[in-house]
Amino acid sequence: MQxxxxxxxxxxxxxxxxxxxxxxVQPSNYDEPDDPDATPLELARRHxxxxxxxxxxxxxxxxxxxxxxxVVDLDGTALNKPLDSTDAVRMLSLLxxxxxxxxxxxxxxxxxxxxxVEGDSTTQVRFYPLTAEEIGDYVATxxxxxxxxxxxxQGRAAALVEAIDGDFYTVMGFPLGRxxxxxxxxxxxxxxxxxxx
Length: 197
What we know:
Layout: E1 2-5, H1 10-17, E2 22-25, H2 40-59, E3 64-74, E4 77-79, H3 85-95, E5 99-109, E6 117-127, H4 132-140, E7 161-165, H5 168-172, H6 176-185
Parallel strand pairs: 1-2, 1-3
Antiparallel strand pairs: 3-4, 3-5, 5-6, 6-7
Helix pairs in contact: 3-4
């Protein structure tokens, strides 16, 4: 089975291929508009649905398509990808020394099925108190610029995170366990691959 990933995220591609899945990348053209009236979790779900629907519309109904969206939630306010380095500094300063939530939602389009199969996961993350120098040094790497909340837990921001409560992969951008169990519930199974000695 081939899965079409409706995302250009190298992290999501790496996670899915790590399970032996045959993944083809077809990024969505959906632009993820903000909506201050939606909760951060609702926003993640809406974006995931829209990305899957967009790629399905361009490819037709014969493909298995998965899309995902991650939103960082600080006290009910969504922190999306930073606009620039100043915005990244602002976000990281807000997160410093505090706990926040990371929501990742996914939407799965299946051949012959009109509705999307959806799922989501939420993880609690707490940052160490950060100095202005730490924040500036991290922003200077450029790593925060394409990530919700201006950080990637799998990169240099690992040094900023004091603790997490929940699924690490949700914070990384794709809740693998929940997604695989959704596939299994729908009758799919992971490919069997043997490691070479």
